[in-house]
Amino acid sequence: MVTLRSATLEDAPLLAELWQDIARRTGPEDVVADMAAVVAAAQECERQRIVVAEYDGQFAGAVHLERTTMSAINLEPVVRALSPHVLTPFRRHGIGTALMDAAVTWAEEHGIGHVATAAVAGSRDANRFMARIALGPYATLRVAATHAVRARLSLHRRPATTGNPRQVTQVLAARRSLRRSRAGVQG
Q1: pLDDT tens by residue, 108-150
Q2: 80 vs 85: CA distance, rounded Å
Q3: Is the Cβ–Cβ distance between 49 and 69 less than 8 Å?
C-alpha cells in the first residue's frame, strides 16, 4: 500500500541515496547535509514541499514540489515536480503515479493550471512514464562546467570583433573595393 507524507529532517539520508545521481558530486556526508538543508528550506517555505512515498511502511520514493512560474520570462504559474524518483525495488507499484498525483493535487489546491517536471535525459523509463501521463517536452535544460563553456565560446569568436578597430575598418574597405571591382567587370 502506498502512503504519502511530507519529508522530515530524518529523511535526509534516504533522500541523499534516492537523489544521488542528481546531487552535487561530493562526499556522502555533504550530500546528506545538502538534503537536510533542502528539507529544512521546504519546511520553512510555503511555496515548496517535499513529498515522500512509502510502500508498506518503507521509504520508496520522493518528489520536490515548488509553486513557481514557467520561467523567469513566462510568468504563467506552474507547479514544478522536481526529481520524482522511485527506488528500484519499488518500481511498478504505483509510487511514481502517486507522487505525480500529489503534484497535480497541490496545483489544483492553489488554482495552478500547469504541472512541469524534469526527467534525466538518459532515463528512458522516466521519460516514457512522463509522456504516458501527458507531460510533453517544453524545453531542454543543458548544463556544462563554466570553464568548458568559456573554452568553447573562445573558439567561436571572430577575430575581427576582438582585434584592433582599425583592422575592422581595413577589412570593410577591402570588401568594398572588391565589390566595386567585381561590379566594374560585370558591367
Answers
A1: 999 999 999 987 888 888 889 999 999 988 888 888 999 999 9
A2: 14
A3: no
Q: How distant, in Å, are the alpha carbons of 21, 55, 91, 125 from that of 122?
A: 12, 26, 17, 9
Tell me the HSE value of 62 on the side-chain side, using a 13 A CA sphere.
24
Please report, for residues 19, 49, 54, 89, 125, the alpha-carbon distance to residue 86 in angstroms, rounded to integers and kept in the order given: 10, 17, 10, 8, 11
Under-70 pLDDT residues of the chain = 158-165, 185-187
Hey, what's the cell of 50? 517535499
Fill in the DSSP letter of residue 129. Answer: H
Burial readout 19-33 (b: 16 or more C-beta within 10 A, e: otherwise)? beeebeeeeeeebbe
User: Comparing C-alpha atoms, which of 11, 17, 63 is closest to residue 37?
Assistant: 11
